[in-house]
Design brief:
The structure holds 2 protein chains of 2 kinds.
Chain A (H helix, E strand, L loop, with lengths): L9 H10 L2 H28 L3 H18 L1 H14 L3 E5 L2 H14 L4 E4 L3 H5 L2 H7 L3 E4 L2 H8 L16 H15 L11 H18 L2 E4 L3 E3 L4 E6 L3 H7 L3 E7 L3 E2 L5 H12 L7 E5 L10 E7 L3 H5 L15 H4 L2 H6 L10 H12 L5 H5 L9 H5 L6 H16 L6 H12 L3 H21 L2 H6 L10 H8 L5
Helix pairs in contact in A: 3-12, 9-10, 16-19, 20-21
Chain B lengths: L7 E3 L5 E3 L5 H17 L46 H14 L3 E5 L4 H8 L6 E3 L11 E2 L6 H4 L4 E4 L3 E3 L4 E4 L16 E7 L3 E2 L2 H13 L4 E4 L4 E2 L7 E2 L6 E7 L1
Parallel strand pairs in B: 3-14, 4-5, 4-6, 6-9, 7-10, 9-14
Antiparallel strand pairs in B: 1-2, 7-8, 8-11, 12-13
The chains are: A alpha/beta, B alpha/beta.
The complex binds iron/sulfur cluster.
């Protein structure tokens, strides 16, 4: 985030633009502080009521995920076996193109031209909606926030509250303008009261739920032992998508597998408290293949790699595959709170996005990805918040080293030297303050004198007129 | 691979093949091979690959102190559990936590459940129940599995039992077995009246999972319900009732 890290244009440039948006910053500050407070109260409650307290739950959650990751090949084979025995059909996809092709073929095979979707990060990751649109298949997002994002022709900015960057007046505008174009329009007397807006969404989506023949979901967990998929949600749109259509297709990242039914225990206690700050989310659906006379008659599961085996091969970074997408790390991140999710340029924003994107896609080939591990002050708040104890700061530092290596042609480059200087500078807050000013100088110097090998690979960003720390001090961390 | 357009076909077994290029069966073998390579690579002991959660950082220590590898091994037996409750505690705690979600909680002796249900229904409401519900609901439609979603959308309320209830989190879990009906009947109507026997209430999630294991092994779907449908997507204001039933009434039978 701070100008300390030179030569990382995309995040800094995008962040600067977002920092100028005072409305966005207010929405984010309100949202993240609200969720943080709720979560803190529940963590305190667990401290008092559970042996070993919150930390014991975190350790158990991390261990449940690690157990599956350590034997991932065996767990996936077991999952395939149990799902198949339960009447589901299992497909495997190495990448986004394969997964999208599988889903599109299944939808077409049933003669459908639309699907209803429950919020799923993995289908965003693979660009499923766009791929289906290219095949003439409409994909309707049914989560309220996703609906706001889709109708607003917008991008999600938070894992859990994707429309966190929109306030109620903007949402009313979007509903009035766009709902009628794709189905039942919003009532003309729509106000901006949240309950009224939610009621409009209920009416708008209900006609789609009642007629849909194909549903598409992700899964929060997949239990190898029992062949059970789990979707955790709030609004009931997930239950609609998982229950009413004749055909259900779930795209599941291979890291979602847990070995046993009992492994769900710590995870189901950690996830809602860490994400929405609730003891339990309103609805959790679990299904094990096809149940005769109840729900979809055909159940498909697409097991997706798309970079996960690459991440698994990274000995430091593989722990990121424990992530249960709770978004607690976003809500405590000082950088995220001020820039919002869009600046990360990915469906996975915030601290987890800063490590997951380079781990899934590799470093050294995209300036956009290579910039992400620098979108952090290494303050450590994300690790403290993470319910499955992912050591995000350690992975960030490790990824930075790998990025430097990827760009070094055998010799230390000016960039590597700068990185080492930066690493030293991070050692103390006072040195950091000095380092920022030094960076302005360094950038000016680099531009004047030139660092050819480096600038040919990178866009040299203009040095910000104000350093991060000075900006922070002047604005009280963006609050003024 | 991104952006490469491909067509795919589904054969009679429902297996999909990406046209010409890598067939799905190869995707499976390749993913499994990539996993084995990833897990065997590197200097760490084979099979112990993912960084294992280490000891807790001392309070006040910032995170970059990396968790040491090779932390303690935990079996499910050593999972953290809730401290013990008495039965009266559990009923009171469950009632309090359900009410926290702005659901309505009432208590009724088992003998007069019919009256308690009638009191929870607005006059003239149309009602659906599962065929094997043991509580009499006069005038209710008994579900025979033929009503489609659009039919259910015209029904005002549903009355069911539950499989287990969780005090700590105020959660009802349906396994859609006897008295609970198929999933759609508790989803589409706008009012859900759920009857829980006091002896079905357990302390916390691990106890519930233990009770539910036989249902899952029998292939039953489960629906966990904690209060009425809700969203906080608009400026984080909690709004009850988006797509699921907007009114949830829990009757605790004692
Ligand atoms: S990294 Fe941890 S805190 Fe962040 S989303 Fe994943 S599980 Fe949650």
């Amino acid at each position: 985030m701070s100008a300390t890290f030179v030569g990382m244009p995309p995040f800094p440039a995008a962040a600067r633009e977002k920092l100028a948006d005072a409305q966005l910053r207010r929405n984010l500050a309100h949202a993240t502080s609200t969720i943080r407070a709720r979560r803190a109260a529940l963590v305190a409650e667990v401290e008092a009521s559970v042996d070993g307290g919150w930390e014991a739950l975190r350790v158990a959650g991390a261990e449940a995920k690690d157990t599956a990751l350590r034997s991932l090949d065996r767990q996936l084979l077991r999952l395939e076996e149990t799902l198949t025995a339960n009447g589901a059909t299992v497909h495997w996809a190495r990448d986004a193109a394969q997964a999208n092709a599988i889903v599109a073929a299944l939808v077409r095979a049933h003669g459908a031209d639309e699907v209803i979707k429950v919020k799923s990060m993995v289908t965003q990751e693979i660009g499923l909606n766009e791929a289906l649109a290219a095949e003439g298949i409409a994909a309707w997002e049914t989560d309220l926030a996703e609906l706001i994002v889709q109708l607003g022709d917008d991008l999600p900015s938070h894992i859990l509250v994707p429309a966190i960057h929109r306030n109620r007046a903007e949402i009313r505008e979007i509903f009035l303008r766009a709902m009628g174009e794709v189905g039942r329009g919003a009532p003309a007397d729509l106000t901006d009261a949240p309950a009224v807006l939610a009621a409009a969404a209920r009416e708008h989506l209900r006609e789609k739920f009642l007629r849909a023949r194909v549903g598409v979901s992700g899964a929060n967990f997949a239990v190898a032992e029992t062949g059970t998929l789990v979707v955790v949600e709030s609004e009931g749109n997930g239950r609609m998508c998982l229950t009413l259509p004749e055909v259900l297709i779930s795209v599941v990242g291979i890291e979602k597998v847990v070995a046993t039914w009992d492994d769900l225990d710590p995870l189901l206690r950690l996830l809602p408290r860490s994400s929405t700050g609730e003891r339990m989310n309103p609805y959790t659906s679990m299904w094990s293949g096809v149940t005769p006379g109840d729900g979809p008659r055909e159940v498909h599961v697409v097991l997706l790699d798309n970079g996960r085996t690459r991440a698994l091969a990274d000995e430091v970074g593989r722990q990121a595959l424990r992530c249960i997408r709770c978004s607690a790390c976003l809500n405590v991140c000082p950088v995220y709170e001020r820039t919002g999710g869009h600046a990360y340029g990915s469906v996975y924003p915030g601290p987890i996005g800063a490590i997951l994107n380079p781990l899934l896609r590799g470093v050294g080939h995209s300036d956009q990805i290579d910039a992400l591990p620098y979108a952090s002050t290494l303050c450590g708040a994300c690790f403290e918040a993470c319910p499955v104890r992912i050591d995000i700061p350690r992975i960030l530092v490790d990824q930075r080293a790998k990025i430097v290596d990827a760009h070094r042609g055998g010799l230390p480059t000016p960039e590597a030297v700068a990185m080492r200087t930066a690493a030293t500078g991070l050692g103390s807050a006072r040195r950091l303050a000095g380092g920022e000013r030094f960076t302005r100088l360094g950038l000016w110097f680099a531009r004047r004198v030139g660092a050819p090998a480096w600038t040919s690979a990178r866009d040299l960003p203009p040095a910000p007129a104000e350093s991060f720390r000075r900006w922070w001090k002047r604005t009280d961390g963006g609050r003024r | 691979m991104f952006g490469r357009r491909r067509t795919a076909q589904t054969d009679e077994h429902g297996q999909t093949e990406a046209d010409g290029l890598e067939p799905a069966v190869n995707a499976r073998e390749q993913i499994l091979a990539d996993i084995r390579t990833a897990l065997s690579g590197g200097s760490g002991p084979a099979g112990s690959a993912p960084a294992v959660s280490g000891p807790a950082p001392a309070p006040g220590t910032a995170a970059p102190s990396s968790p040491a590898s090779g932390g303690p091994a935990f079996s499910s037996a050593s999972r953290p559990v809730a401290r013990r409750h008495t039965v009266d505690d559990l009923i009171a705690l469950f009632a309090e936590r359900v009410a926290d979600y702005r659901a309505t909680v009432t208590h009724s002796p088992t003998a007069s459940l019919s009256d308690a249900v009638a009191a929870a229904l607005p006059a003239g409401a149309s009602v659906i129940v599962a065929a094997d519900l043991t509580v009499a609901v006069p005038g209710a439609l008994v579900d025979d599995g033929t009503s489609g979603a659009a039919d259910l959308d015209r029904i005002d309320a549903v009355v069911t039992g539950a499989r287990v209830a969780i005090a700590e989190t105020g959660t009802l879990v349906l396994d859609h077995g006897p008295g609970q009906g198929r999933r759609a009947i508790t989803l589409v109507p706008d009012r859900h009246i759920c009857i829980v026997r006091a002896d079905q209430i357990v302390a916390d999630v691990p106890d519930a999972l233990a009770q539910l294991a036989p249902s899952v092994r029998a292939g039953r779907p489960l629906t966990w319900i904690s209060g009425p449908s809700a969203t906080s997507d608009i400026e984080l204001s909690r709004v009850e009732g988006v797509h699921g039933p907007r009114t949830l009434i829990v009757i605790i039978a004692t």
